[in-house]
C-alpha cells in the first residue's frame, strides 16, 4: 500500500516587526533601562541614588500596567522581585560587589528553576516565552511543542550556568564600570547565541512534525489590510 502523504499544518505567526517589538519591550523594561539608570545616577549622584533609580523604574513599569489593567509580563515580575532584594542588600551594606553578586547568583537560581520545572506540563521557559512571542493556542497546546520546551530548557540551563560562572569571574576581578561593560556585552552575546540556537532548533523540530510556520499575516488578512 502506498504511504499516506504527511499532512502539513500551517501556523501563522505575527509579522517580524511585531515579534521584535514584543520581544524587545520586556527586555528593555526589566533589564536594560534599570541598568542604564543605575549607571547614570551612580556616576553622577552616588551608589544609593543609582539603586533607588533602578528600583523606581521597575515599580513605575508595574504600576502603569496595574492602572491600565494590562497583563504584567512574568519576566518583569521576577526581575522586580529580585531587584527589591538586591536594592535592600545594597542599601544595607553599601557594597556594589554584593549588589551585583546577586544577579550573578540568580543565573544559577534560574538554571535550577528551569531544571526543576521540567516535570510541569508547561515548564518555566514556556511561560517566559509568552512574554516574547505569543504563540497561537493551536501551537501552544501541541504535544510536540510541550516536548520541545522541556528539551530546550536544558539548553537554557546551560546558558545560565555559563553566564553565571563568567560574570562571577569578571565581578571578582574588575571595577564596577568595567564589570557593567564586560558582563553586559558578554551576557547578551551568550543570550543572543542561545536565542539563535533555540530558534533554529524550534524551526527544525516543528518542520519534522509537519508543522510549517509562516511569519506575517495570512494572505486574506493582507488583502483586507491593503
UniProtKB/TrEMBL annotation:
<feature type="transmembrane region" description="Helical">
    <location>
        <begin position="72"/>
        <end position="93"/>
    </location>
</feature>
<feature type="transmembrane region" description="Helical">
    <location>
        <begin position="99"/>
        <end position="120"/>
    </location>
</feature>
<keyword id="KW-0812">Transmembrane</keyword>
<protein>
    <recommendedName>
        <fullName>Intracellular septation protein A</fullName>
    </recommendedName>
</protein>
<feature type="transmembrane region" description="Helical">
    <location>
        <begin position="36"/>
        <end position="60"/>
    </location>
</feature>
<keyword id="KW-1133">Transmembrane helix</keyword>
<feature type="transmembrane region" description="Helical">
    <location>
        <begin position="154"/>
        <end position="173"/>
    </location>
</feature>
<dbReference type="InterPro" id="IPR006008">
    <property type="entry name" value="YciB"/>
</dbReference>
<dbReference type="Pfam" id="PF04279">
    <property type="entry name" value="IspA"/>
</dbReference>
<dbReference type="GO" id="GO:0016020">
    <property type="term" value="C:membrane"/>
</dbReference>
<feature type="transmembrane region" description="Helical">
    <location>
        <begin position="179"/>
        <end position="202"/>
    </location>
</feature>
<keyword id="KW-0472">Membrane</keyword>
